[in-house]
Structures
1.
Amino acid sequence: MANPSPILRQLGCFRSLMKPQSLQHAQISRRSITTAYTPKSQPLDFPSKMPKTFLSQIPTHLQPHSRKKLKVYPPPASATTTCKDAVGAVNQSQLETLDPTGERKALFDYRRNPRSVKVGDIVRVTFKNGDPFAGVCLSIRLRGHDTSFLLRNQLSRVGVEMWVKALSPNVESVEIVQRTAHRKRRARLYYMRQPRHDMGTVENIVTNYLRQKQGLRGIKGRGGRGQRR
Amino acid sequence: MPPRILGNLPQLPCLPKGSLFTIIRANVPTRSFGIRSLNPPKASRFNVGADLPVLKSTPTAALERKSRTLPLRTGTIVIKKGMTGLFDPETGKRVPCTVLQLDRVEVVSHKTRQIHGYNAVQLGSGWKHPSNMTKSLLGHFSASGVSPKRHVYEFRVKDEAGLLPVGQMINADWFQTGQYVDARSHAKGKGFAGVMKRHGFGGQDRSHGVSLKHRSMGSSGPGQGGGSRVYPGKKMAGNMGNQQNTVQNLKILKVDSENGIIVVQGAVSGPKGCQVRIQDAIKKPWPEVAPAELPAETPAEPTA
């Protein structure tokens, strides 16, 4: 580190004056603090008749013909919006075909119809194929087209129960043989299965009813006190 | 042209200009695209001839084997809505049935023998908002001219005669009352289930010294004589359900094309609201379909 002479150091400020004029100008212009707007340079056009192989190597967003906007088609009308409850629709159509008048449904609608079958009644059912069955109605299940009821009887001292579908096409007629003496305070009379409460056979009541009906039919030609539907 | 041109420098000026240019260009390597095998397949010197039998491991032979069990026409996508009971009009018996509903089922595209190796109809059902869909899938639907679909499934068909035109909507009357279908869907997931539930194992004794092992499997295999290992495929505890299950030969009891409802006899796997694919049963004679429904000249002929 050689120290320059003190005289030379003082003269050092004139060094810039000794530089060529052109260089000085360039420096000033470079240090200018004004900023001029320069538009963003546009990408140059691709040469016409460019081979396809070259074109495919260019990124898609830089390709001359950008991709077309996709056309999205509207959805068609849906059956699931017009028919939201498909199972209900099937059930409803069943109900309409099996019970067009709504008579059979009303016969078991014990909540709304006061003249309907009620638990404790003795009911006789005849079938299209098979023997008729009579018994005490123990319970009624209201399930629309699946409505069913449970009958209990004793055949040769053996308790017999039978669930009958109220709207089944096999059920020809349902008639009330004898109404219960007073309203039962249970919806399901399963206690009647106990020996203490068992009603026993209803054979006698039904034969009496049938004989009476036969006699009435002989005189009047019309049905007895039971409702035949 | 002379190959040793560079060695003959004194001759250079008298060469025509064009020939020099071509030499230089020939040395520039041309760019090639794609993957090229170093050992391209060569034509076999053997087994060449017209009356040779079709090899068993070829796609042609595979299609020939499947031709008896591939349906002639496509099936459809349906939603399982629930179960109910119907009274059979003939016997008067009540039969359990499943209610299925179609939701905007349209043909999206085809798979063809020439391009994909097999014939199939790609169907879509439902609707999905375009903003929730990838652009590639959106382009697929856009090219077919159908709305964006939520569910897309393929249905294999025997030949080109079963390929419905793209964009055609399939309604419930595609199936007839009384015909049989196969229904495939995902069964309800049961989670991680033990061997008693999953495979019906008997479990172990309640007592007689059994402790904490009442529902577990017994031995998982033989000892030294059997190799002292657990054989592959041993039934053990694991994930149960949530797998595709096919229920075959379901009779169609009712068709309501207005509401898009199809009612089949019996149960279909899966929870309510799941997607079910139904197609003509492969173990029954093909249904008699009017030739107008099939776009081909050859009507559907029943085969066993």
2.
Amino acid sequence: MAIKILTEHSHIPGIETFDVYRKNGGYTALEKAIKTMSPEEVVEEAKKSGVRGRGGAGFPMGMKWGFLAKPEGVPRYLVCNADESEPGTFKDHYLMKTIPHLLIEGMIISSYALGANKSFIYVRGELMYVIQILEKAIAEATANGLLGNNILGSGYDLELVVQPGGGAYICGEETALLESLEGKRGNPRNKPPFPAVKGLYQSPTVVNNVESIANMAWIINHGGEAYASVGIGRSTGTKLISASGHIKKPGVYEIELGLSVEEFMNSDEYCGGIRDGHHLKALVAGGSSVPIIPAHLVYKTANGEDRLMSYESLSDGGFATGTMLGSGGFIVFDETACIVRNTWNFSRFYHHESCGQCSPCREGTGWMEKVLHRLEHGHGSMHDIDLLVDVAKKIEGNTICPLGDAAAWPVASAIRHFREEFEWHVSHPKEATLPGAVYKGAAVLA
Amino acid sequence: MEDNKPQVIKITFDGIEVEVEPGTTIMQAARRIAEADSSQHHLVPPAMCYYEPLKGSGGKCRACLVKVAQGSAKDTRPMPKLVPSCITQVQDGMVVENVTNPAVLEERKGIVEFLLLNHPLDCPVCDQAGECHLQDFAFEHGSAKTRYEEERRTFEKQDIGPYVQLHMTRCILCYRCVYTADQITDKRVHGVLGRGDAAEIGTYIEKAIDNDFSGNVIDVCPVGALTDKTYRFKNRVWFSKPVDAHCQCDKCSGRVTLWYRGEEVIRVTARKNEWGEVKEFICNTCRFEKKKTSDWVIEGPTKVQRSSVISANKYRADVIKKPDFALKLAASQYKPIDDSRPYITDDQTIRELSIENNNKANQRSLAEKN
């Protein structure tokens, strides 16, 4: 049985209530941290654990905490990014609705470590019922003296606020989130200054993903070194993977980083394999914004090594032959999936979600969507394929926030690996526009 | 700590060394170079959204992206991405490549293309023509052809009062008018609504923008999205004669530029510097009400600036000084018919070319990664 750090107790009925959570060892880490450790020691444990940001970028959390500026007399804030809206990613949603107290406990420990007296959980607005669950959990924790003034008699005060977002994908970008939290239009800020120096209300702020913060309880209970011993290399710990697509058992799975993709895909414990009678065609390994990879690169890297579920192994080969772990949105395509249509769909999403602040993203995402629409509907030309590559290249890296990259990568990678399929849409417009039509020549894994 | 900081910072911009104060941005440093030597004017990165007098502006249009080949004397690594020169502060020993870097020029060409995707190409009927920053930018950095075939975005006309005409279709969302209303006037009633390429400048509930300084949004608008209703369609700007003048005004400095057609004052604007920026904002009374010569004390003809419409032959390719690099490149690659896209109708050949390009790109990507 693989190690479970986050979802160990998720099967217990009533775990969302304070009493059951407490009975199963909940809030012991909080007691340990507040009663026996100094904030610096907590930060030190986070650094030792090597836990990397689970929102997608994979930046080491302890290091991020270390960057937090600590000027005298200025409040510091911790903001939890629960604005999970990446297509294919639904792990935070699962975690918050199942074990809300794990996040609350993590938030209190992290706030204590950073010296924040007011912390925010910014939840995606569509998840109203999750907001209610969190608010109930906060009320329970407050009633039991674990939140509010003078927590556990330590003299440490913390107010925890749940803020619903307006349902914009862009507000998952940390500076756009902060703008939104301040009550402004959710436009990403120009960096520098980074939030660690000037964040919420121009004060030093740390923004972390739900899953990253939820890890803190286990890290305090077992020690950072124990956490670092789980996983592989610099990809320490476990990761929640949201598996979806043409697999037998879609759902949220907690895996130890370093598990092979092949095992994750085919083991009955996890995805259970491609649905019967079908074959693997492509994989998006980390949510819609990472590059898509074709079947022959899923289980093996271009060098012939086993592909593992880790930050390093998934990105092995760069953008030419690799992808990214991202936020862990594992979307599997079998041979019935049309890559052109799928790329168009992703691109439609980014067009809709671009904030419109900087020109490459505002104009480029719409342009790519229109060209892909044309290709998908049989009106494209061969020039359009190169045009897409060029537009994607001109967006990538030239925008204020990573949404531009996120819009460009899926398009560029789909054309890199599935160019024939795009060409087929151009050369066989009649066949390609039939309902459910898919290019038959794509390589699949038997 | 403070004493250890250098009082002047040396940076190299396109091979030219310049000394500036700490806290200066790359754009400002480039402008200092041009101010000292007017023959270097073409080196200054274009600015579509950045507006020095407006706090917080910049970073949005990405027109001024430059390559930082060396971060500073201490950290000699190049910055991984192109950076917006308008908001990136200089470091001692920084080496910046602007028109000397082909990637920067290529990206600028891309930005022109992006900005023009949804911008109507109706310069012949647009009031801003001749003093339009986008027109200048497109002329200097863009390509003569478009690859965009789809329908352009348009908007319903919105009435925002008796003085200012909003033509949202032409807007490039630079946010300058929003910052102006925020910083110059008491109460901002307009802002950006909506998202992505559907974002628009508006007042949400249709409402007149009514305050003493509302007219300044016309001056800051880089394109023809906000124009003067008392002047619209009266004249082409290059047929008028700008004259500096002033008057006693209790609301503003009263220092303006009058635009004459013959003996008639057809327009009043604030004075702009050589970067097309207003330093002293003027009030609506001066701008819209005082249109008689007798209202003003004439100082003399306005010094004609680069960004001014009067500079003769502005759009003649043989007169304008384009970036040296682009000229050299163009000369070396000149062919009687010049088109970046191959005119090949044979699908098989196109396919082969595409695959070849694709492979090259993949190899480059691999090489970069390794």
3.
Amino acid sequence: MSERFQDIRERLGIPRLIIIGFVLLLFVTAYATGMSIGPLVSASLVRIGMNGILVLAMVPTITAGVGLNFGLSVGILCGLVGSLISMELRIRGFSGFFAAILFSMPLAVVAGWAYAKLLNKVKGQEMMVGTYVGFSMVALMCIFWLAAPFSSPEMVWAYGGQGLRYTLTLDNYFGKVLNNFLLVSIGQWEFPLGLFGFFGLLCLLVHLFFRTKLGMAVKAAGANPRFAEASGIDPDRTRTMGVIMSTVLGAIGIIVYAQSYGFLQLYMAPQMMGFPAIAAILIGGANLRDARIPHVLLGTALFQTLLTIALPVTSRVIEGDISEVARLIISNGMILYALTRRDGREVA
Amino acid sequence: MKTQGAVLPRQRGIDISLLKKNAVPLLFAALCILGVMVSGMDPSFLLYEIITRFSRNSFLVLALLIPVSAGLGLNFAITIGAMAGQIAIVTITHYQIKGLNGLLWAMALSVPLAVAMGYLAGMVMNRAKGREMITSMILGFFANGLYQLLFLFLVGTVIPMKNRAMMLPEGVGLRNTVDLYGVARALDKLWRINIGGIWIPMGTLLVVALLCVVLQYFMRTRLGQEMRAVGQDRHIAEVAGIDVDRIRIIAMIFSTVLAAWGQLIFLQNISTLNTYNSHEQVGTFAVAALLVGGATATRASIWQALVGLLLFHTLFVVSPQAGQALFGIPQIGEYFRVFVAYGVIAVALALHSWQSRSK
Amino acid sequence: MAHALEMRGITKSYFGNTVLKSVDIAVNPGEIHALVGENGAGKSTLMNILFGMPVIHDTGGFEGEILVDGQTVNIESPMDAMNLGIGMVHQEFMLLPGFTVTENIKLNRELGRPNIVSRILGKKFELLDKEQMGKDSRQALDKLGVDIDEWLPVAGLPVGYMQFVEIAREIDKSRMKILVFDEPTAVLTEAEADLFLNAVRRLAESGLAILFISHRLDEVVGVAHDVTVLRDGEVVGHLPGQEARVDRIAELMVGRKVDRPSLPPREKEPSDDDLILEISSLSVDMPGERLAGLDLKVRRGEILGIGGLAGHGKVGIANGIMGLYPSSGIVYKDGRELPLNNPKAALSQGIAFVSEDRRGVGLLLDESIENNIAFTSAQVQDRFLRKRLPWTSLQVRDNEAIRQYALETIKELDIRCQGPEQPVRRLSGGNQQKVCLARALALSPEVLFASEPTRGIDVGAKSLVLDLLVKFNREFGMTVVITSSELAELRMVCDRIAIVYQGRLIGILSPDASDVEYGLMMAGKKRAEVS
């Protein structure tokens, strides 16, 4: 028994066990206080589907040896611009959703390429530089939101003020299109099959990519650049590939997130959006060198479930909204744990 | 007998690349002058603002110097020190200890807190060698979570505290803003002089000057020398018998204590505590100010800190007005200064890693 | 008179692998004692023991005793060694570039002046006594006879002077009696080395006992009063200074005549009429193994050995041709010029490489055996891919083909493992090397460069690896170029052995040539000069 526990502990790691325990505790509390589990689970599923792609965006950079993509906001900003163009052109429904992705794609490729060029010059400090490149891009784009030539009355301030609104509603555009697509309801349980299908498709594509010749090269150069070089691969090129992929996924990720949330959040909102994604993949079992699809799935599921049910459940026991504080502690605690783990040290 | 030794010329003296060396502060000086001209602000108001901001922020920026010299890079975790200071000031406000007396009590009280937190932070840094900066930043975020847990949920429940003026109506958790009327401007008011209609807080400036002297002294002591050695090369310092991990922890403790005091000086000037926000940007703004002065993650001097402070805060004051004047949108200036703060950090870090790799 | 330092019967093993066997060495005051030996002969282990490095205690200590001034001593830490007056000048400089000469000399031994603050807060808060520190440093530098300004920052000093600062630091320590130099001239220019050797002589004359570890044999002969030669952890020779000659020492270092096993015959013997590689004036900028204009012809179908002492550039040849380090010169493969600095070009021209840095360059440690074997071939030759899409980059790997090939190769090369999916990190050194060979084999190369193929693997596995190389050569007609520090193994399997000295080819010997001939050539003397 104790040996088996030891084995589980080693495979999952203490922090992951704590989080799993915490989630279980929340469910038990919910049950004990007489809440119905169905809506809780359904809400969690939506949250998993809407956040999953942002978490998935961490896989290419980690695999390519660049580490956690703290500059995910670069991709997110591209996604936002793509969405705005789609809205400005009044493309509605599913076409609007795909148009947003289509418009953001070239932006994300170019931005990812430039971002990768920079990261290749600062090997060993990618995370720190990435963070502040992300932050400063967010600030720079704030000026863009203020000055950009968008004219749709639903997007700009109605009176006073200049430029785009802080929060744009997607109701008349592509809000919830994916959430409501193939939504299966059984009693109080709801399964957003469309949302999950899209997330699953992207997971599959990423998985397949790492089985191609190019994907294998990216992976090998990430694990051991000198080995890759001896096999005729240019590690800078494969790192660039990884960063571009991550940026593109970040753009798609925010569009999926926004359609589910129903709003587009501009200005300083994207600044910290990369952090929960980083935390989630680490919770799923990834580290600074190794990240795979199962880590994405497990991590997103655990973290988002925790965040979703923490508020309704704890509010029955404690006054006030502890979920925001819990998010801060858990996500940053998890990143801190990953940064200070001995085995991760080889990266630097 | 100096038969076979070749004589090397003494190479100290004038540096022709002085301009290049100070490119960053010069660039920002130009930007500031431009901003001042464009904004068309009243010079005496501008001067007053800059002096006030300079006096209340300098301690926090100076708190960054020791970790830089010990090779820990830019200590984004001074937010932890700021939290220690805030815990102390909440405590003395609760017990209604007022005036300079209250401020001194808060400073004394923040020391054990900051030492303990700095010690823990140092231990974390020692486990994250080679990526101290990102770790210090995340550590700051993490500590912020614990801080919020403390003041939102533990105060009034686990920690008995009853004070209508400070607490949320439910009796649990601190209000978003706490009025620090007790210690308001306690230090600033100690000795002020009026030059041409501008009040100059001499007391505060004197304390800052004193800190500069102490820092100068410190860097010339044995301990300071060891810190500089560790900062240049951990491995060589270790071979020479220096306890590298210990030195790094000491550096973090000093920095955290100075940050705690710095935050107290900041708060007595502001006179209101934004319980959940006052500390958040402390790290970013202090680091940005230091870098604007021309410092890097491995080299930072007192002068760079002071010059950086002046430039950064000048820019901070004039940006909205300049944005208004240039584009008719004051927010552009506001976002521009945020962009400058983050951008200067990004560029400085990139340059730093670039240089350290090409060596 | 008691020896200043004596080490008696030192025996040390790491995990059952004996690296030092009953080594005796003694140094008198005023004497320069040279310790020479190839890489892996046990010099550094001996020094680690002398300085009480933690790595020794952590691996079960050692046998034998150490005497200082005739007294048995117990050295458990570098601090103990320092207190006994034993100092070390490191191969790599332990200097802080941003500090001045004085600050470096006095590092962690700073002089302070007490004041009020330090009386309250402790010694650490004393202000530094820069004046006295400078005076002490001046004195130490004068002792060495060098005229460096003690207040200059180290960063701008020429390399040779940095070495002097290192030495000055050691002699500034009071009661310094024994000074160890570890490869002190490796980074110096010739003029600097002369200056340096003079300083060493001066120090010996002042009564210090000096232990001098070096590869540069001519230098050793010039300066040493006594020479001890280590090989495979044993003392194989002890020569008084006047008897020490370069060729004699080199012979002792690399010697060990072995019987050449009978190798399978060939249909046609390789000859200069049919060359596969022509290398002319190849220079490679590989740190520690620089090549400076090497000319070499490789015959089709031969096994060519490349020997030479460490640091002379033998490892640089393969690394240069494969494009792993910046190189210049001209290389012809089958009469066509091969582009340099381009790994892909070399690989696709049918040249494969097994790196000397197995774990660093040779393997993806956390990947499976099969992935390691198939990787390079898939990248370079588009093998093991499912050709469903027209763009090769996006073709997906063919797991079945990979598995099948891996299983065959595992069998053929006798790789001992749990199966093709086992991560290579968990394999023994010998089996890891076989995976490297399998990866090269998957490319079906015409030329195979194997750098130090037997380094760091146990004795039994060594001959298996060599057998495989012979098999590749005889059965697949592969031209094999083996670089090795172990001359004995080159002489066992090679047709010819090229010796590299100071970045150039100095000559080619037959495997049957005498030890003396090898010794001389590795020490830089051509055959003509001998007779």
4.
Amino acid sequence: MATTSSPATTDLPRTPRDLLPVFIAPIIALVALPLVGSPTTWVTLTIAALAMGSMIFVIASGLTLIFGLMDVLNFGHGAFIAIGAYMAMTVLVPLSGWVQSDALSLNLAALLLAVIAAMIGTGALGWAFERVIVRPVYGQHLKQILITMGGLIVAEQLIHVVWGGDQKPMPLPNGLRGAITVGDFALEKFRLLAVAVGLTVFIVMQLVLNRTKVGLLIRAGVENREMVEALGYRIRQLFVGVFIAGSALAGLGGTLWALYRETLTAAIGGDIMVLVFIVIIIGGLGSVGGCFLGAILVALMANYTGYLAPKIAVASNILLMVAILMWRPQGLYPVARR
Amino acid sequence: MSEPLLSLEGVHTHIGQYHILQGVDLVVPRGELTVLLGRNGAGKTTTLRTIMGLWPPSRGTITFDGQSIGGRATPDIARLRIGYVPESMGVFADLTVAENMRLAARLGPPDAARLDWIFGLFPALKRFWQLPAGLLSGGQKQMLSIARAIVEPKALILIDEPTKGIAPAIIEGMIAAFKELKRAETTILLVEQNFRFAASLGDTVAVMDDGRIVHRGTMEALAADSVLQTRLLGLSLAAHQ
């Protein structure tokens, strides 16, 4: 539409770009370099952090949108992580021939099938979870916390019933074991894959949010749900779609997380939820970009302190959150309304 | 007076434990600009929100173009071609002006000719087309909010206090824009505190107090009667000037 494309004046106000938070990650990495001492170890830790951050982002991105769009505090998100991982394991175990094959194509085919099963399964579960558990408690935060935590407990117990309560091995495809050597640096293959998956999810989400009408609706709904409805859009249907997509992403993230650890228990989801909540709080509730940056920061902090001062590794992310919230109380990239 | 496009009969609205609307009877004639006046807290904003379904009526009937809309969901009411400009303006601050307009054009991309017409009414919007709406001034946000409501042809537009906190120069531009909308025979229900602004635009007027309509008539008659203005509003048009 010619009319709308070129408001050609040279003195238009510039859109301010808030890049300051982006520099925190490289600053943390550079500060850690002399403390770690060995560049090889530093690269290994940094790649591990990027991989971990990518996986946390995949898990947290759906949750931040669910909170932003409908003010729903879903403590049951951990259930989708765990069930996604178990579903992937259920597919990978009978495909052990493909998993252990020397052919990378068979390895990746097995992994793809596992991921598809995990995402479809957790997406369907997310649909049911929204209808049965979340829908009756819209707008009631205390009840949301209680009932979604209850949902998480029920899901964990169902995992015990279906898959047993013992720790299970998660078969990592053969072709993803080991490392690629670049000069003096060894880059683990699975970690590189995790980074690639995280970046792909981030790019696809940015494209959907910024280039499509559905994305516009999600961004607008996060900011002012009531006004979106007053424009004639049925936002509840949109929310169900976002809930399903967020649950499916949790299933994908759970699969990656279990492959990373190579073991899984029913508590795998609940264990990582503390980090996930830290990520969405410091990123800015409802902000996908903030969530990505927050995930990278949390992972960098966890990996560097885990190596340098293991005793404070758990507390380091709480300190990071406190520091960021003192600087920016609404998070790194707050959504306008919040 | 033209036939009614919108009518409220005995409408009550409760918000929590508070009984805000206490039997509102209101008629909005087709093709006219009806002004809803009243003191702060009289129930004007609640009336608009009840019509839009943002707060459901607890009693009474709301009829729009021959069909009952009381208690319907907000999106279904909006889809009857009812535009809404809230007091808070409701612009999406993180979205650009272009994205705000694109979102408001629910049925498809905004029509180029209509967009040109809107740019004629609110030239600033063209200038700031690619700027995030959060960076606009209060007056520009109000222009965007109104432009969004008219980007597609509407049967009725509900506008809540468009002049609140807006500079006089922008209010003059707004008066011109509303006159243009009236020429296009758009039906408007306007909540307003600025009596001079209301008097320059209104065809009919209703005055609210304590959740009820306490006066109905033509704006011309109210504007000419300073005693009535003082009794209903506590201030006359002369005092505004």
